[in-house]
């Protein structure tokens, strides 16, 4: 269970994960040794999974983002497993989720432009196994993107 100090550390760590240890400890109101020990404990417990860079895709030329809602042919016993394994192999698929309900999966796909998306869609996505139906939703604007938790 996390205590108030752990939550304070996590708030500061979320806000500025690239700060030097001494600065992060100062912001969290703990010593650098305490900070390191508690962050190590939270990593071991799986509370902190990773520290990563968030890349601005448009800055690298990826200007198209599409969400695909996929319904699978569930008469096949391994439909989910085989579909997801194949989807993981498509580099332009940056996220895959599964659901209970009418839609079985959602894929987030990025592409440089519409011709690139059409190529990926035709050559890689429509060939994924066990697709019964697929609906494309073109992203127009990212209104909110925030992975921080309200700690």
What report would you give on this structure?
- With 151 residues, this protein is of the alpha+beta class.
- The protein has 2 domains: 41 residues, Orthogonal Bundle (Arc Repressor Mutant, subunit A), CATH 1.10.10; 82 residues, Alpha-Beta Plaits, CATH 3.30.70.920.
- It is 36% helix and 20% strand.
- It is built from 5 helices and 4 strands, in the order H-H-H-E-H-E-E-H-E.
- A 4-stranded antiparallel β-sheet has the order 2-3-1-4.
- 19% of the residues are buried.
Fold blueprint:
Blueprint: H1 4-15, H2 21-28, H3 32-44, E1 64-72, H4 79-88, E2 93-98, E3 105-111, H5 114-125, E4 131-138
Antiparallel strand pairs: 1-3, 1-4, 2-3
CATH superfamily of the largest domain: Lrp/AsnC effector binding domain/regulation of amino acid metabolism (RAM) domain
* Class from helix and strand fractions: alpha+beta
- Strand proportion, as a percent range, falls in 15-25%
Number of domains: 2
Spans of at least 5 consecutive residues with low confidence: none
Just give the CATH class of the largest domain: Alpha Beta
Q: What is the arithmetic mean of pLDDT?
A: 94
Largest sheet: 4 strands, antiparallel
């Amino acid at each position: 269970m996390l205590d108030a100090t752990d939550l304070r550390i996590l708030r500061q760590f979320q806000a500025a994960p690239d700060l030097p240890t001494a600065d992060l400890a100062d912001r969290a109101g703990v010593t650098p040794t305490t900070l390191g020990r508690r962050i190590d404990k939270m990593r071991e417990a799986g509370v902190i999974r990773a520290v990563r860079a968030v890349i601005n895709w448009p800055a690298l030329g990826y200007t198209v983002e599409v969400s695909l809602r996929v319904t699978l042919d569930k008469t096949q016993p391994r439909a989910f497993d085989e579909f997801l394994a194949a989807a993981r192999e498509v580099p332009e698929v940056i996220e895959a989720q599964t659901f209970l309900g009418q839609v079985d999966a959602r894929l987030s796909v990025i592409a440089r432009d519409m011709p690139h998306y059409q190529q990926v869609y035709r050559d890689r996505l429509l060939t994924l196994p066990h697709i019964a139906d697929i609906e494309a939703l073109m992203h127009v604007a990212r209104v909110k993107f925030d992975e921080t938790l309200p700690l």
